[in-house]
Fold this protein.
Amino acid sequence: MMAFYFGKLVEIFPFFLKGLSMTVQVAFISLVTCTFIGFVLGIFRAGKNIFIKRLIGVYVSFVRGTPFVVQIFIIFFILPDWGIQLEAFQAALLAMAIMGSAFICEIVAGGIDSIPRGQWEAASSSGLSLFQQLRFVILPQSMKVILPPLVGQYVLLIKDTSVISVIGVMELTRVGWLTVVRIPEGLMVFSLVGVLYFVISYPLILLSNYLEKRMAV
């Protein structure tokens, strides 16, 4: 019987590759969006404006303190009641952007805060504008602190794409659930799903480990 199920799984393997392709697509777009938004929010979070710092802090605390699946449900099922109708793919990208940017914001803010105040003062006394201080002095130094946890967060974001299956996005986990209906051997099916997630996550895990060792040196 196991051989029969395995043969069926081999037959529909291209279906898993399509799910993997969707997962990679969602992950790539989300990582780019999250990184951009997260860096912008992180810079303001590490700034001197108390009101903006606290406002972003409330946003970060709410997002990090609520389950990701609840955020997706709000975006996909509740927003249409307010006149904002999104397709499942669009809702997934928005939810990933909101969730990921909150975590990346804290990573970036922590990296910037790790830079000694004297570096800011030296950059300011050199006649650099605030933007130039960040670009040429602060961010290059803070990247040593930011990069390792940032890449680690990327791995978590890729795995979090599995949650978007709850709104019908045909990504890898959704394909797994649909396959279990036809092949009632859950361990075999979701072992394959796990392996495929591992394939796209492992290079980032290696990169994260490398960066941690490199930055430590």
The radius of gyration is 21 Å. Residues 13-45 form the longest helix (33 residues). The chain has a mean pLDDT of 88. Residues 40 and 156 are 20 Å apart (CA to CA).
